[in-house]
């Protein structure tokens, strides 16, 4: 069992809670803590002093966090301005969707944007898919697919659950991103020097999980979907694929599902159990989320 301690401010603790809670199996509130979350592979405890303690078997991916961001600009402290390099074309980027949703798949996309196609996408106001409506995503996705070489992977819930039994979510994401980069490289004659991953783990840990034959070189940057057009386009393609799968899932099961991992999702989960039973839940949901425990009682 390894232990890692980090000092965080209140905003960072709240952000960490938002990201970790959907993956937790139990939440408690020991004395002098904001919260304690028990995940499948580790326990995270946030103390009122600002100290956050991570305990688990594999914490190497947490050893180096992305650079702290300036609260006013949202940029990495000590880094170049956000726009630096973001207008260089050609460029390529990758992003994923669905890892925070209890229901539905995980989708990962990589996209190549040339100097010729960039102005078209810029006129479409392509940005981080989380900031675009579903209607805008559905409209933009086919245009991006027609204009830009891309690679897309869709992992259905059943396959996700099978893989998650042996690989944590960071491991899974690294392997999925790597596959999309390899597929994209097979479709583009010369890959661009500026190839960006929307960072979810430090570079060293990414390549540890992706393996010795991983695609290189890549640039890792947080909030890349808001800074690089290629990452934003990949984000849109991943989101469009997620929505397409979602539509088919609702049609196949004859019910409306809720996105995210909140109370509305729990109500939806209980309805699904009442209609189809526990044995079918893994076909639509990521079973390691805390929601599974909550809807089963």
UniProtKB/TrEMBL annotation:
Domain of life: Bacteria
Enzyme class of the recorded protein, top EC level: hydrolase
Annotated Gene Ontology cellular component terms: cytoplasm; ribonuclease H2 complex
Cofactor: binding comment: Manganese or magnesium. Binds 1 divalent metal ion per monomer in the absence of substrate. May bind a second metal ion after substrate binding.
Transmembrane region(s): none
Necessary cofactors: Mn(2+); Mg(2+)
Protein name (record): Ribonuclease HIII
Binding site for a divalent metal cation: 95-96, 198
Keywords (A to Z) from UniProt: Cytoplasm, Endonuclease, Hydrolase, Magnesium, Metal-binding, Nuclease
PANTHER family in UniProt: RIBONUCLEASE, RIBONUCLEASE H2 SUBUNIT A
PROSITE patterns: RNASE_H_2
Subcellular location per the Swiss-Prot or TrEMBL entry: Cytoplasm
Region entry Disordered, spans: 65-91
Domain RNase H type-2: 89-297
GO terms under biological process: DNA replication, removal of RNA primer; mismatch repair
Low complexity bias locations: 77-87
């Amino acid at each position: 069992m390894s232990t890692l301690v980090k000092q965080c401010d209140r905003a960072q603790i709240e952000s960490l809670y938002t990201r970790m809670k959907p993956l937790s199996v139990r939440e408690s509130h020991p004395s002098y803590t904001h919260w304690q979350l028990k995940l499948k592979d580790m326990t995270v405890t946030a103390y009122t002093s600002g100290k956050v303690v991570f305990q688990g078997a594999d914490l190497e991916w947490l050893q180096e966090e992305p650079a702290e961001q300036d609260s006013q600009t949202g940029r990495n402290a000590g880094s170049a301005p956000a726009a630096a390099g973001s207008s260089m074309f050609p460029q390529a980027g990758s992003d994923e969707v669905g890892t925070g949703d209890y229901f539905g798949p995980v989708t990962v996309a990589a996209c190549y944007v040339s100097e010729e196609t960039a102005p078209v996408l810029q006129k479409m106001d392509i940005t981080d898919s989380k900031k675009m409506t579903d209607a805008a995503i559905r409209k933009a996705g086919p245009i991006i697919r027609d204009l830009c070489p891309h690679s897309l992977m869709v992992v259905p819930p059943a396959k996700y659950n099978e893989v998650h039994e042996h690989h944590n979510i960071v491991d899974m994401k690294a392997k999925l991103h790597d596959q999309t980069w390899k597929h994209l490289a097979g479709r583009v004659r010369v890959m661009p020097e500026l190839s960006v991953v929307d960072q979810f783990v430090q570079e060293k840990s990414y390549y540890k999980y992706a393996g010795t034959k991983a695609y290189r070189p890549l640039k890792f940057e947080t909030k890349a979907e808001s800074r690089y057009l290629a990452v934003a386009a990949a984000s849109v393609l991943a989101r469009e694929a997620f929505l397409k799968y979602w539509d088919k899932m609702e049609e196949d099961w004859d019910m409306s599902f809720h996105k995210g991992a909140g109370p509305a999702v729990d109500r939806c989960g209980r309805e699904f159990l009442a209609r189809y039973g526990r044995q079918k839940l893994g076909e639509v949901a990521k079973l390691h989320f805390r929601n599974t425990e909550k809807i089963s009682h």
